[in-house]
Amino acid sequence: MPTFKHENEPADALRRLASERAIKLKRDKIFLSLFMPKGAAKELRRAYSYLRSVDDLVDADPPQRAEYFKAKERLLRAISGEKSGDRVVDRFAEIAVRRGFRREWFDAFFNSMEMDLRNARYETRADLEQYVSGVSDAPAEMICSICGFRGKAREGLSSLARSIEYLNLLRDLGEDLAGGRNYIPLEELKRYGLRDASEGAARENKAGFMKLVKAELARYDGIAREADEGLKRMPAGYGLPLLTVSSVYQWEARRIARNPYIIYEANRRNFRPSKARVMVYLVQNAFDYVPGRGEKRSGPRRFQTNV
Questions:
Q1: Inter-helix orientation angle 87-99/13-25, to 10°
Q2: How many CB atoms lie within 10 A of CB 304?
Q3: Conformation bin of residue 294: beta by default, left when phi > 0, alpha when psi is -120 to 50
Q4: Is the N or the C terminus of the chain less surrounded, counting Cβ atoms within 10 Å?
């Protein structure tokens, strides 16, 4: 979570965060540059740079409200034809106009960002679904437009984005609670007899906590399986790296299944796969699948929901 000392940060806060994100993206260059078409990879990096940096403004401690609304206003003006003077914003706006991004995608994304600014918790699954739609479905639609995905491939990418978001919300539970947010709906905590989402409550009612984790992992797994079916129908340049991303998240899910209390640990390295592991998954997917035709030979070892 980005940390700021004051609410009124310099006007280039978005650009600074975007630069930090660009550095982190170098670790994933194998996915964006080695396989994907160069034009699409470049546009994906620029789209990610804006969207993720805006999310960082909202997730900062304290949240950078002024900078967030400034970034939002600049983008909405830029996609209407008015240059903002901010390279991060203008590059993303140019992509949005050229690729025909719909206004409702931006509205959904910004609505979810503002839900984070307003809400510390979600009462029902329906409330959380609205949030997830903006942070996963809307960006997924933008990615599909950049990459030209249609039909099953588009459905696969959307399912991948949604499965990743659900797993992220479970994986980062401890960190989110420390930041004053809880993405486990209160109605579900009540269903499993948990007084709240804290580690203390989870250890008081171990059986209820285990059932909750199993249900959340099963939700992730069901959507991830749908995603893999669509990803296998993509051209290899897209399908192989995205299938490998899916494999990495399955690895994270297995770690949670083996030790559910790991989600309360602050060490992010718990969920940072080695480069060797990522390469193994990449090679495994290359041999196990025939991207573009939906055919499967044997497939990588999948996550199982036996918590």
A1: 70
A2: 13
A3: left
A4: N
Question: Which tokens hold the place of 287?
Answer: 């041999």
Element (H, E) at 121: none
pTM reported for the whole predicted model = 0.85
Cα–Cα distance measured from residue 22 to residue 45, given in angstroms and rounded to the nearest whole number: 8
For residue 133, CA distances in Å to 73, 77, 153 come to: 21, 24, 18
What fold, for 149-307?
Farnesyl Diphosphate Synthase (1.10.600)
Identify whether the C-beta of residue 49 lies closer than 8 Å to the C-beta of residue 67: no
Rounded CA-CA distance 24/176 in Å is 21
| H or E segment and range at residue 131 | helix 125-132
How is residue 115 written in tokens? Answer: 């839900």
pLDDT digits (tens, 9 = 90+) for 8-51: 443 455 555 444 444 344 445 545 456 677 788 889 989 999 99
Q: Which residue has the tokens 């340049």?
A: 237
Extents of the domains making up the chain: 13-120, 149-307
- Tell me how far CA of residue 152 lies from CA of 64, 185, 232, in angstroms: 38, 30, 9
Q: How far apart are CA 282 and CA 138, in angstroms?
A: 27
281 vs 285: CA distance, rounded Å: 6
Instruction: Assess contact for 106 and 143: CB atoms under 8 A.
Output: no
Helix axes 65-78, 87-99, angle to 10 degrees: 40
C-alpha closest to that of 54 among 40, 42, 65: 65
Mean pLDDT for the chain overall: 85
Q: Please state whether the peptide bond connecting residue 139 to the residue before it is cis, i.e. omega within 30 degrees of 0.
A: no
H helix runs in 192-235, sequence order: 199-204, 206-231
Q: Are 277 and 226 in contact (CB under 8 A)?
A: no
Q: How far is CA 71 from CA 13, 38, 46, 87, 267, in A?
A: 9, 27, 15, 12, 31
